[in-house]
Write a structure and sequence with these properties.
The chain has one domain. It is an all-alpha fold. Helix 1 packs across helix 8. The longest helix has 18 residues. 57% of the residues lie in helices and 0% in strands. The chain is globular, with a radius of gyration of 20 Å.
Length: 208
């Protein structure tokens, strides 16, 4: 007769698995130091544009993290701030690396939020084109003017004015142009396979 079987229990914590939803984005070859500088910068800027479009942008980011079941990566406001502060242009830039799964989570959230605002983004870009064609000042369009004003305010309050990459945007006109370029990238994200194409562009080149 066999005696009772003794089961050894391990005290080591279980390995943290990467959420399956992140597998929809390919894994580029990056160094062990994490995502490149340009990737960290562009992700933060695209989220900055979303916050300028949506007054509740930060809350929407956290709510969507939970909805997509990636809130184990983006758990709260503090974690979100730390991830975005890997942008080297930030006032309080973090020296910690941005891991691939963290970058994927931020891009996935940005693209989902962009899709929810597709109509608004497309309309603002169409209106901008019409204003430019007619040589009408952007201030004459209330919604577009509000977006640009909020983006300038966010950029100036969060970026380090002593950084060379920030000094480039030393006028309202230059910041407006950056904000409009980001609006175009957000629209790009809403297209067919837009999220995957935007993700790849962060490592392989500029969004076309």
């Amino acid at each position: 007769m066999n005696g009772p079987v003794s089961v050894m229990q391990s005290n080591s914590p279980p390995e943290r698995s990467t959420p399956l939803i992140l597998d929809s984005l390919p894994n580029p070859l990056i160094s062990e130091l994490g995502c490149p500088r340009r990737t960290r910068l562009q992700i933060d800027l695209i989220l900055l544009a979303i916050e300028a479009l949506d007054l509740k942008g930060s809350e929407a980011i956290l709510a969507l993290a939970k909805e997509l079941e990636i809130d184990e990566i983006i758990q709260n406001r503090v974690v979100l701030w730390r991830l975005r502060s890997t942008n080297p242009l930030r006032r309080y830039s973090q020296r910690r690396p941005l891991r691939l799964e963290e970058a994927k989570a931020l891009v996935m959230i940005a693209c989902h939020l962009a899709r929810r605002m597709t109509v608004l983004i497309r309309q603002l870009l169409m209106d901008y084109q019409q204003l430019r064609d007619k040589q009408v000042p952007l201030e004459h369009h209330l919604r577009l003017s509000d977006y640009l004003e909020r983006f300038r305010a966010h950029f100036r309050s969060r970026m380090n004015p002593r950084r060379a990459g920030v000094l480039v945007y030393n006028t309202d006109e230059k910041l407006n142009q950056l904000a409009l370029e980001l609006l175009g990238k957000l629209l790009f994200c809403t297209g067919t396979a837009g999220m995957q194409r935007f993700w790849i562009s962060l490592f392989d080149g500029e969004v076309a």
